[in-house]
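Suppose a colleague, Dr. K., hands you the sequence of a protein chain of 147 amino acids and asks what its three-dimensional shape might be. Before reaching for any lab equipment, you can write down a predicted structure in token form. Begin with the sequence itself:
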Amino acid sequence: MKRTPAIAVIGLAGLLGVAACGARVQATPVPVPPAAPINSDSLARQIANIAVGKGGLTALADGDGQAILAYCDPSTVSGPPHASTPTSVSCGIEYSDGSVWRQTVTVAFDSHSRPITGRANRGTEILQPAAGDGPITRIRCSPVCPN
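The predicted structure, expressed as tokens, is then:
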């Protein structure tokens, strides 16, 4: 009785063209695809998120508040992140006091493309805080906006 299932398996393997005996096969390594290239759009969004504290660092702060919304212009990205060279981009940043500034944000990344430091220049104030009304958003938001 035990021979019948074994013979059936060998017969089925023969019908399907599969070898019924074991064979040693040399495994070939599967190439790992390279990491997706970082384009200026995604890098600008990443730095905008970093500026508002949603990218691994604390939010940028001016004397009166923290960054709550940022849009960074992809056409101004200085280059892809490298561990030895900080990346900078021009951004419109709204702060919690309601002011909006055009600033250059510079982020240094480690060798694993994780942000380690971020800073912004003094920049130019585009919109002063509204008296008593709280923050007013008047800058364009990127497709991925912080909530």
